[in-house]
Amino acid sequence: MLFDLRVTVPDRPGALARLAALVADHGIDVRGIEVLGSSEDGVIDHLLLECEPGEAHGLTAALSTEAGFVVLGLRRSSRTRGSAAELDFLLALADNIHLGVDLFTDAIPRIFAADWAIAYRIDPREVSAQTALAPSVDWDGRVPRRAVRVTETSGFTLPSGMGAEMVTVVLADAYVMLLGRQGGPPFHDAEVLRLRQLSQVCGAIMAAKSADAPVS
Q: Is the CA virtual torsion 8, 14, 20, 26 positive or negative?
């Protein structure tokens, strides 16, 4: 099984080697690692692990006893072994431009280790696409200027009693995308920037392909 692990590694000599040793001690294979950035406590790493659930939870338990290490989140990954979710999405988009919004909605939870996504058409205001696990989220129609983390004043209302970390971005000047992650961790600044860049690339491809389409 694949798991996404996010952990803060203390900024001191030997800390990364200690993380690698703990991973090896639990018989876990690392299939990918991404450095999201730094914080006051250290460097935030996102690891794609291949292991059994017991091994993954054993690793997080061990990390919690290590001074300076902070486990920010462990979740079953929606990615598949050997896949490149972002590249797979862009290739599919180039061949199926008419499905751009649907493809983007379906792809971004896998790319950003999230749980669900919703696409709202700006005019007329309506839900255009959503993933299977997406809750019913009310949107008040305010359009974000850029990719931002969602706060209580951002215009999105989750069902009563439900919580989620969320980020929103505009796609192709016509859709507002909402990406949700249950149970954390919060979206890092690097992820917010990456979502904005991906939406810009997607919008540019959609616009270029539309311009090239023959007029009937």
A: negative
User: Cα(74)–Cα(149) distance, rounded to whole angstroms?
Assistant: 20
Q: Which two tokens stand for residue 39?
A: 């914080």
State the CB neighbour count (10 A cutoff) for residue 97: 18
Residue pLDDT tens, the chain, 216 long: 999 999 999 999 999 999 999 999 999 999 989 899 888 889 999 999 999 999 999 999 999 999 999 999 999 988 776 667 888 899 899 889 899 999 999 999 999 999 999 999 999 999 999 999 999 999 999 999 889 999 988 899 999 999 999 999 999 999 999 999 998 899 999 999 999 999 999 999 988 866 555 545
What is the C-alpha to C-alpha distance for residues 7 and 48, in angstroms, rounded to an integer? 11
Listed in sequence order, the residues at least 6 apart from 130 whose beta carbon sits closer than 8 Å to its beta carbon are 105, 116, 117, 118, 119
Task: Give the residue carrying structure tokens 């790319």.
Answer: 111
Half-sphere exposure of 69 (CA within 13 A, CB side): 23
